[in-house]
Amino acid sequence: MASLNRLLHRLVGQVGRFRRDENGAMAMMMGLTAIPLIFAVGAGIDYGSANMVKSKLDAIADTAALSAVDHLAITGTAAAAQATAQSTFNAEAVNIGNLSISNATATVTDSTTARTAVVNYTATKTNLFMGIFGYPTLTLTGSSTAQAGLTTNINFYLLLDNSPSMNIAATSAGITTMVANTQAQGGCAFACHESNPSADNLGNAGGVDNYALAQKLGVVTRMQNLASATQSLMSSASSMEGPNSQQYQAAIYTFSNAGLNTIQSLTSNLANAQAAAANINVLEVYDNNWLTKTNNNSDTDTDFETAMSQVNGIMPSPGTGTPSSTPQEVLFIVSDGVDDEVSSSCSKSLDGNRCQQPFNTTWCTTVKNRGIQIAVIYTDYLPLPTNSWYNNWIAPFQNQISSNMQSCASPGMFFSVTTDGDISAAMQTLFQQAVAAARLTK
Predict the structure, then answer these.
(1) Distance from chain centroid for Cα 307
(2) Which DSSP letter does residue 187 get?
(3) How much is the pLDDT for 15?
(4) pLDDT below 50 — which residues of the chain?
(5) In 10 A of CB 195, how many CB atoms?
């Protein structure tokens, strides 16, 4: 009995242990949970791969957008920059495997001050694992934007007074030297250029004119300074262009008695303009009162209005100066501001209809109303109280000359240069101001 009881007890224990055994359930549970685990791992791999591809596409989009606004593209049109951005994206994106680009667009627009490039893309990437579960692809989208300030294309027209009064000695010391060496003429500070000086009995050694005398004495004149200042300006403008050799164009004219004399027609080759500026010189006359041997013009050698009319006809209507538009236009005027011409409207005429008076600035208003900036350098018309001609004809309006010239200039674009002043520095300053004003008015 005791043996039977021990047997029954053993059987009951084995049944209990069998009932408590869960090994089979664990196997089934592991089998059921393996499926989502495999899905999760596969999805993680696919998503990780997709993120890597998106990072590459984003970098390509960045590169494409930047290609439309870099230092080379910014000098071209928006359309050309857009084509560059589009081709840059397409050329790089095609190298990424398991990827189909369904849409990729580059859009480049120019405002009045800046260029904006936007690259958008939509792509489909093939999945390695998730396709088993009904998700064969992933859609990737992205966008990149780049912006940069636009270069300003400007045409500069230099209108330089080369009448005899502009060839005064440039410094106080030079004026003193010229006056001391021209006592036979009553003391003259002007280095007037005459092809027949003997007719005027100037009293200069060797019978030379005052132009040759100034050179012999080593006296530098305003016209010489103006020529070298113009050369320096062309060099500075060229150095400011950077990679865009078309950004600034320049034309150089002198004016005196009969309108414009072309030193350099409008060109983007500023090195050529710089070389041409060496030819800037004072008007050469035949002798006193005579422009040529057969033309007695009573020394009416400064006709500002005719020059302004002619240069106004040369300058085209200005644009915004952006690469997609026509250039802006800037007129530089350098003069001592006194007309000497034949006119019936003069308030105080000399010798018939000969008129000396401050410039008529009507043409300045006409030019500015066209949207063209005017920069004016006024080379002071110096008082000469020991000279009877000055006292009779110029002194009465001396105090009007500077304000009259300033009224011709656009706001902030006027500079006065007096004796011992630096014309080159004045031209450089006004050039910088003209460029700054052009950027602000785009």
Answers:
(1) 26
(2) -
(3) 43
(4) 1-8, 11-12, 14-15, 18-19, 24-25, 27, 30-32, 34, 442
(5) 14
- How many Cα atoms occupy the beta-carbon half-sphere of 45 within 13 Å? 11
Q: pLDDT at position 137, please?
A: 82
DSSP 246: T
Q: What is the pLDDT of residue 108?
A: 93
What pLDDT, on a 0 to 100 scale, did the predictor assign at position 3? 39
Same fold, 32-149 and 154-168+221-440: no
Amino acid present at 170: A
CATH of domain 154-168+221-440: 3.40.50.410
Q: Quote the crossing angle between the two packed helices 78-93 and 23-67, to the nearest 10°.
A: 150
Report helix, strand or coil for 248: strand
Residue ranges of alpha helices (H) inside 21-104 are 23-67, 78-93
- Tokens 């439309």 sit on residue: 68
DSSP class of 203:
-
Q: Crossing angle, helix 210-217 and helix 172-180, to 10 degrees?
A: 120
* CATH, domain 32-149, list 2.120.10, 3.40.50, 3.30.1300, 1.10.10: 3.30.1300
User: What single letter denotes the amino acid at residue 217?
Assistant: L
Domain boundaries, the chain: 32-149, 154-168+221-440
Phi, psi (degrees; rounded to nearest 5) at 175: -60, -45
DSSP 8-state secondary structure symbol assigned to residue 178: H
d(CA 127, CA 113): 45
DSSP character string of 128-168: SSGGGGT--EEEEEEEEEEEEEPP--EEEEEEEE-SGGGGB
The confidence score (pLDDT) of residue 45 equals: 65
